[in-house]
Amino acid sequence: MPNSNGKIIVLCCHSGVLLNYSVLLGRLQRYNVSLCSSVDEVMCSLKKVGGADFLIFDEFKFSKDNRMDVFRMNAEGKIKRFLFIESLFPGARASVNGWAKSNNIPLQHIIKNPISMPELKACLDLISHKE
């Protein structure tokens, strides 16, 4: 039976997209969710709850700023796995995977934007079955 109680944090600067994640995750019966519009909000949430099983980083770009944001969020090892929802240029996935691996970022998946419910469910179910 999948663990649907794991803490999920969603990071996206667009409030409408955050509401869409709330609906998607609710339909997947995932209710332990923090919706954050900034890295500062993620850090605050991590401090309050002590960690997260999963962080969804919407609109991840392989930019210096996004990489620094990931380093900051991962600094204390409080996030078990990352899911990047990306708008990457062709061929960038290999670079992102290599970067994550060489920097000990627990990257679970990279999914092309926009995410669908079946894709999100598959990712969450895979993680739940590993625990």
Describe the 3D structure.
- There is one protein chain.
- This protein is 46% helix and 20% strand.
- The protein has 131 residues and is of the alpha/beta class.
- It has a single domain, classed as Rossmann fold (3-Layer(aba) Sandwich).
- Strand 3 (54-60), helix 3 and strand 4 (82-86) form a beta-alpha-beta unit.
- The longest helix has 14 residues, at 117-130.
- The radius of gyration is 14 Å and the shape is globular.
- The termini are close together.
- This is Response regulatory domain-containing protein.
Short description:
This protein has about 130 residues and is an alpha/beta fold. The protein has helices spanning about 15-25, 40-50, 65-75, 90-100, 115-130, and strands spanning about 10, 35, 55-60, 80-85, 105-110.
Mean pLDDT: 88
- Look at the helices and sheets and give the structural class: alpha/beta
Number of helices: 5
Query: Which outline best applies?
Result: globular
Number of domains: 1
| Physical arrangement of strands within the biggest beta sheet | 2-1-3-4-5
Enumerate the spans where pLDDT stays under 50 for 5 or more consecutive residues.
none
| Oligomeric state as shown | single chain
Q: How far apart are the first and last residues' alpha carbons, in Å?
A: 10 Å
